[in-house]
Specification:
The chain has 166 residues and is of the alpha+beta class. Helix content is 44%, strand content 15%. The protein has a three-stranded antiparallel β-sheet, with helices on one face.
């Protein structure tokens, strides 16, 4: 108890007011707190989801599109994360060729016979867009307090690649 009183006595001046050094130190602590809060509520989930989408895009690149099973497995895997909010929306996966605008979800897999996929020699780009609803109960009030608008209720990822399948 004496230690706390001694420590608190160093924070105030002789006249009873708080010193400017204390104000700067407390401001620094608050900024660090908000940076950590932002990291754990947005950056860390975004990084995990970005890795999942990148793995999905590599699979689509190898087989010239995505099978329906690939999309379903991806949705099941992502929905297990605690920061994905499935009560407000669904996970949306969209893959189209550019400039042909051909849908490349539902192609034949590598082990299946068929020619329903994007071939490498077609030289069309495939754009994969994944939209995942998020939990922002912690981040939204902080952003509103600081006057930041446009905090999204979903994560959106875009990958553009070419097919490697002959």
């Amino acid at each position: 108890m004496k230690f706390i009183k001694k420590y608190l006595s160093h924070l105030t001046k002789e006249s009873g007011f708080i010193s400017i050094e204390t104000i700067f130190a407390m401001s620094f602590v608050i900024i660090v707190f908000f940076l950590c809060l932002g990291f754990f509520t947005f950056v860390q989930p975004y990084t995990k989801l970005d890795r999942e989408v990148h793995v999905l895009s590599q699979l689509a690149q190898r087989q010239g599109g995505l099978t329906l099973d690939d999309v379903q497995l991806f949705k099941e895997r992502v929905s297990e994360y605690s920061f994905v909010n499935l009560s407000d929306g669904i996970i949306h996966v969209d893959a189209h060729t550019m400039p042909g605008d051909r849908d490349v979800i539902g192609v034949t897999g590598l082990e299946e016979a068929g020619d329903e996929y994007v071939r490498r020699d077609e030289k069309e780009l495939i754009q994969l867009v994944v939209t995942i609803p998020s939990h922002n109960e912690i981040l939204k009030p902080v952003a509103t307090f600081f006057g930041v608008s446009g905090v999204s209720d979903k994560y959106t990822f875009k990958e553009v690649f070419m097919s490697d399948r002959y």
